[in-house]
Amino acid sequence: MAEGRRVVVARFGETPLEAIAEHASLEPMARPDVASLAPVDVVVAIRSAHVNWVDLLMTSGQYQHMAKPPYTPGLEYAGEVVDVGAAVRRVKVGDRVLVDGLLAGPRSLGAYQAYGGFATWGVAPEEAIHPIPGSLGFDEAACLLGSYETAYHCLVARGRLAAGETVLVHGASGSTGLAAVQVAKLLGATVIATGRSEKKLEVVKAQGADHVLPSTGFKDRVKELTSGAGVDVVYDGVGGDVSVESLRCVKFGARFLIVGWAATPFVARGQGGRGAPNANVLPTNLVMMKGLDVLGCPTVISTVMNPAIRAPRLAAVLEWANRGAIRPHVSHTFALGDYRAAMQAKWAGEVVGSAVLHA
Ligand SMILES: NC(=O)c1ccc[n+]([C@@H]2O[C@H](COP(=O)([O-])OP(=O)(O)OC[C@H]3O[C@@H](n4cnc5c(N)ncnc54)[C@H](OP(=O)(O)O)[C@@H]3O)[C@@H](O)[C@H]2O)c1
After folding, report:
1. CATH number of residue 240's parent domain
2. pTM for the complete prediction?
3. Which residues line ligand 1 (CB under 6 A)?
4. Which of 21, 68, 87, 128 could be bridged to 39 by S-S, CB 3.0 to 4.6 A?
């Protein structure tokens, strides 16, 4: 039987960096035998796996969803179909596909959680398999759904962002942030993007942002750019001081989208300890005086609570990708054996958009 490899996280670390250094390893992997799988199963030879921020946080159990160690990271991946079960109808050997990370992989619930993307092969049920849309390559396809579904959920479903409005996107150089920049432009909005690195912001500008600003001391410039009015919507994937400063450059009645907290990742305890001893805090006086709508935007949890929101979101993202209106930006590629370097680069903020691993 053919031999492959997979990354295994044996137990949660105190922090992602500790988990990556101490508790993750590259192990041999036998090719999944389709005869011993369910009839609806599809075996995918993985060509590219997205190294998500969430993959990092999961290694220390500081993400809201915990895979049970030992597990293989890799929320999302793309590759080529190499085997199909007897009941599979839509998918055939040789198809170029991407795998839905909500239905298979460590972010999914149930049996397919065991098959992460940091591996030679993945196994997913047919319903999780999509043909790679448009002209996307394996790398771009691997980085599509998580980031763009998040951008859609936040800006469209929650934020009701409309053409002609202005949105302030924090963490714009990140996977979800850059997706938000592209989606906001597609919706006809003006985008003001923030970040810590001028070099990365050049890429953000090239990806469509109308204005780019540093992630501290941006409020006066935002006011100027909006003729004193402030922005209609804030997309906040960063948290901490960035959130608080944002409250001072929003329009009355603005929508403030809580997307994540990349600047304060240790909100929860390490080693899966749960609790939120370091939670972000917003000044309620500013929320009140500015009549703000503060909207929590958990893409996956919202879908679990209301599965009906998934189909239109997925259809929109796949259709946009199909016609080339969106395209994930992948700045770094690593070999599977270099998974530690890949995860460390993501943690250190070296990546613009996304990084991927090649099996
Ligand atoms: N709502 C949802 O459903 C959902 C879905 C996916 C992810 N998330 C969350 O959203 C956040 C971003 O995720 P992502 O996948 O886009 O992560 P990412 O690719 O790592 O991007 C995060 C960006 O935030 C900025 N950042 C990081 N640390 C910072 C700091 N200390 N100060 C200021 N800015 C900092 C960085 O930009 P610069 O270096 O340019 O400043 C970085 O590019 C995370 O908290 C993640 O857990 C939420």
Report:
1. 3.90.180.10
2. 0.97
3. 52-54, 150, 171, 173-177, 195-197, 200, 215, 237-238, 242, 259-263, 297-299, 349
4. 87
